[in-house]
Write a structure and sequence with these properties.
homodimer; 316 residues; alpha/beta; Rossmann fold; 2 domains; four-stranded parallel β-sheet; 45% helix; globular
């Protein structure tokens, strides 16, 4: 194992001054719908509105000062962009963020609000990476990958660590899976801090790469892309896949209708704003009711940065 | 004074087993926008999604058992309907709710979900009252008025009582004003439990009856009705007006654009779902910045029952 228990404990102490200890919320109505007992770790209420600050901050703090003095750089359509921009501001260095020109305006504004320089690119992986390389070459900024980075994974692990501390004796934890940063961190924290807790991943049918990658052992592409869970579009990282393969109980797929129904339940019953990606694990529990009935189920609500002008379009 | 300090304390004990003690949340970003320190009493996270459960439950518990055995009845487009339906279920008696046929579907469903019988009427005061009278006559159910009722006012007062207990030394409290139940209760609690705290009301320009009524001393109608704050459309109650006139510092008006801007800030920054009516006081602070600068400002977020299919229409 490349990430030790001690590394996660150290990361948690390292980032604690910069993050919120987010609340774990419960909702009796949602419990009664699903027939189990939910514990929602609300990273939508985290600084920058998402768990990504944990990994971004941990990675930034681990870079030697001489290497980070020219700034931090990354490519991201959203929350990791904000995380790196926020971390750079905390460290008093510049941030260079490559964002696809299709990024939600609210996320672009937030990144700029932290004082970062935003560079737009075409909405594909190649355009992102080539523009990023150009910027890194020109500025000498330090690149922090959104998920395929051990310091990032270690930082993301601290969300599940807090959930386990605040809600002991969980039978299950579920996390959504996109690039695999949150999921691999969650798996490591469950393994080290609550070994009897099994971890499932939730993935949209319309971005079903992780389920294939876990099966084949190679990084696979999704057969097709069609989901409102826009945080989960990417394929798994090289460093994330082996951790996920070793520890995940199963990747559970959900349909778009199931994601929308779960999102509506959270908005209407919990009165909190979460991103569509957040509710993929909840949708997975509602779809696979018998697996979770009468159990204590922790869910990491990953973020809350949504474009409010789009919310209603998810419910027509 | 018709409602004593002791009556509010007793009401609080009476309803405590049936309600949540809702959290008081803060948000550093919104503080920095306004230049003051906010304490948001989150009744959107209350049972039934609104403070109305406090007054409805207090009133229902005060009705002699012989008078309530035939059930409870009310007319309401929304949150008070849910409050009475919930109270009736708690007491094991039927509920008869008259709702305008234009009521948001989510509120109708919630009322039915508590087992109440819903009767639809045309969307005007006369139709509401005449259908209600018909039902009360036929069933012998006990009518609980949404705001023009001392037990209801006493119940609503407990929200500000909790806010004062949890956030001492507030310079100001603001509440929205519709029929005046929440506002008169808030004024009484500030008067009894924190006399140095001044209370302002927030009212939409497009439902500006309270500001006129406070001036004239009579129940006035709004010059025109046009607001997304659909909880604040009604005129003041007979029992509410004298309390408001005696204690309110001032009624502050806000425009629709100001309401929408405040709503967006809460959704995007606090990541919680509140009703448009909720943010009228916040909009009033943002409009009258100099009155509140550097002060500790408590705001009662009254409810969170919104139709998610409509949210985006507020932001185009």
């Amino acid at each position: 194992m490349t990430i030790s228990k001690e590394a996660i404990v150290a990361a948690h102490q390292r980032i604690a001054p910069f993050i919120h200890r987010t609340p774990v919320l419960t909702c009796s109505t949602i419990n009664s719908f699903a027939g189990c007992e939910f514990y929602f770790k609300c990273e939508n209420l985290q600084k920058i509105g998402a768990f990504k600050i944990r990994g971004g901050m941990n990675a930034a703090l681990q870079i030697p000062e001489s290497d980070r003095k020219n700034g931090l750089a990354t490519h991201s359509s959203g929350n990791h962009a904000q995380a790196v921009a926020f971390a750079a501001r905390m460290l008093g260095v510049p941030a260079y963020i490559v964002m696809p020109e299709t990024s939600p305006k609210v996320k672009v504004e937030a990144v700029k609000g932290y004082g970062a320089e935003v560079h737009f690119c075409a909405p594909n992986q190649q355009a992102r990476e080539s523009l990023l390389n150009e910027i890194v070459e020109k500025t000498g900024a330090y690149f922090i990958h959104p998920y395929d980075n051990y310091e990032v994974i270690t930082g993301q692990a601290t969300a599940a660590k807090e959930l386990i501390e605040d809600s002991p004796d969980l039978d299950f934890i579920l996390a959504p899976v996109g690039g695999g940063g949150l999921l691999s961190g969650t798996l490591l924290s469950a393994h080290y801090f609550s070994p009897k807790t099994a971890v499932y991943a939730g993935e949209p049918e319309g971005a079903a790469d992780a389920i294939l990658s876990v099966k084949s052992g190679k990084i696979e592409k999704a057969p097709y892309i069609n989901t409102i869970a826009d945080g989960l579009l990417t394929s798994l990282g090289e460093r994330n896949l082996p951790i996920i393969r070793e520890f995940v109980k199963e990747v559970l797929l959900v349909s778009e209708d199931e994601i929308k129904a779960a999102l509506r339940i959270v908005y209407e019953r919990m009165k909190i704003i979460v991103e569509p990606s957040c509710v993929v694990p909840l949708a997975a529990v509602l779809r696979n009711r018998s697996l979770f009935e009468h159990k204590k189920v922790g869910i990491v609500f990953s973020g809350g940065n949504v474009d409010v002008t789009k919310i209603s379009s998810w419910f027509v």
